[in-house]
Amino acid sequence: MDYSPRMSRIKESATFKYSALAKKPGVIDLTIGRTNFDTPRAIKDAAKKALDEGKVNYTPTKGIPELREKIAEKLRDANNIQSLDKENVLVSAGAKQLIFEAVLALVGEGDTVALPDPSWVSYESIVEFAGGKTAWLPTHPERGFIPEETFLSALENSKPKLVLLNTPNNPTGAVYPPKVIKQVVDICERKDAWLLSDEIYEEIIYEGEHFSAGSIYDKCITVNGYSKNCSMTGWRLGYAASKNREVIEKMNAIQEQSVSCATSFVQYAGIAAYTKEARKETTAMREELRKRRDHLSRRLSELDAVYVKPAGAFYVFPSFGDTDELKLADKLINAGVATIPGSPFGSKGKGCLRLSYGAASIEQIDEAIERMKKSIP
Ligand SMILES: Cc1ncc(COP(=O)(O)O)c(C=O)c1O
C-alpha cells in the first residue's frame, strides 16, 4: 500500500493490544492504565454548568486563560517552578498530545532522545515517528528501577537532544529521588539537552517526595494532566509548561494546525480539579490505591519474582528472571489473568510483567495471585 514511510515507524501500543485481550469473560484485568473511580463530583458539575452556559466553541489555542492561570499557580506553589505565568502554559487534549507536540517541536531526523529502560510504551514510537532515535538508559528491578550509576553513565555517553523522564514511573512505579533528578539535570545542563519531565502520576505517591526537574532547569518541559489523579482518562485534558516560553510557542504552533484546542467545556471542568471538594475525593482515591498496592505487594511475595514495593503510580513490575514474559502473559490470559508483558517497555522489561492495580479490587487481586501461583512454576 502507498503509505508514507513514517507509518512504518509507528507501532501498535502493546498496552492497548493486551487490554483488548483482557476483555474475555472471567478474566481478571491487570492491564488497565487507569483507575476505576468516578471523576470527582465537582469536576462533573463544572462541565455540566459550562455546557449549560454555552461554552461550546473554540477556545484560544493555548487554552482558556482561567485554567492556564490556575495551572501556573499550582506549578509555582506545589512544584516550586518559579517565574511562570499563564503564557508559559499550554493546555491540550491529554498529556500524550503534548508529549507528541514537544517531540515534534524538538526532535529532527537522526536526533537522539535518551530515555529510561524500561519506559512507557508510547515514547519510543513518538520519537521514531518524529525521525529521532532512542538511547536507552538502563534501570534494574533489584534497585526498584531507580536510575543509578549505569543509567547516569549511559546518559553521559550519549548525545541527546532531548531526555525523557517520568516520575512516578510507568511501568515500574518508581519515584525518582530529588538527588537523582538533580544528577540528570546536571548532565542535561552540561550537554545543553532539553528535558521533558512527564509527571502525569505526580499525585499518586505513597512514599517519598515528588521533585519537579522544571524547578531547577529552564530547558525543561513539565507535562502533567488530569487523567490519572482525577480519573479523567476519557475527558482528554493535560498541560505542558516551561520557563522557556519559546518552546511552548513552538508546541502551540503544532497545536494550532492540528487539534486547535482542548474541548471547551472540559477546560472549564479542569478548573474545578483545584477545588477543596475535588481534592478530598482524589485524596480518598489515593488512599484506596495505597491499600491495593500494599496488598498486591504482600501477596506477590508468594511468587518467585524480584520486585521492590513501588512508591507511586498504580503499577508493579515484577521480574521473573529468564522467563519468556510474552509466553508467560499468554499463559496467564488462558489462566484468567491479563497482564502486560515487559519487553514492549524496553529491553530491561524482558522477563517482567506489568501488573496494574488501578482498577482491581482486593478480592480480584487475591484471585489473580491464586491463578498466577498455579501457572507460574
Ligand atoms: C507515563 C504516561 N504519560 C502520559 C500518559 C498519557 O496521559 P493522557 O491521558 O493525559 O494523555 C500516560 C497514560 O497512560 C502515561 O502512562
What does this 3D model show about the protein?
The longest helix has 25 residues, at 276-300. This protein has helices spanning 14-21, 41-52, 65-77, 95-106, 121-129, 149-156, 178-191, 245-256, 264-271, 276-300, 325-334, 362-375, and strands at residues 28-29, 89-92, 112-117, 133-138, 162-166, 194-198, 220-225, 238-241, 315-316, 337-338, 340-341, 353-356. The radius of gyration is 20 Å and the shape is globular. 38% of the residues lie in helices and 13% in strands. It contains 12 helices and 12 strands. Helix 4 packs parallel to helix 5 (121-129) and helix 4 packs across helix 8 (245-256). With 377 residues, it is of the alpha/beta class. It has a 7-stranded mixed β-sheet with strand order 2-8-7-6-5-3-4, sandwiched between helices. The protein folds into 2 domains: 5-39 and 277-375, Alpha-Beta Complex (Aspartate Aminotransferase, domain 1), CATH 3.90.1150.10; 45-275, Type I PLP-dependent aspartate aminotransferase-like (Major domain) (Aspartate Aminotransferase, domain 2). Bound molecules: pyridoxal-5'-phosphate (PLP). Pyridoxal-5'-phosphate binds next to helix 4. Pyridoxal-5'-phosphate is lined by residues 33, 94-96, 120, 166, 170, 198, 200, 225, 227, 233, 238.
